[in-house]
Amino acid sequence: MSNTIQVEAARIPDRDRLLRELEEAGLKAKAVDELGITVKCTEGDEEASNEIFAHVERVIMSIGASFVPTKHEDVIYIRPPVG
User: Fold this and answer.
1) How far is the CA of 52 from the CAs of 9, 10, 14, 20, in angstroms?
2) pTM to 2 decimal places
């Protein structure tokens, strides 16, 4: 695992809200490109990765959007459900 986790949002407003929430939680997050967020964490820290994923899930639920966060390696993708 790298020392950063990448989050790829589906929409800019979701990315902006998630960025604020991650920063408020004390995580070192910054916007990257149009829809991305990079979050710094300790290298090899699976707990940090799980914490970030949990924040993403909570934000998606509070927005009420029909998006599904999925984690693959060091990237969390926020996409519409398949099917």
Assistant:
1) 13, 17, 15, 13
2) 0.73
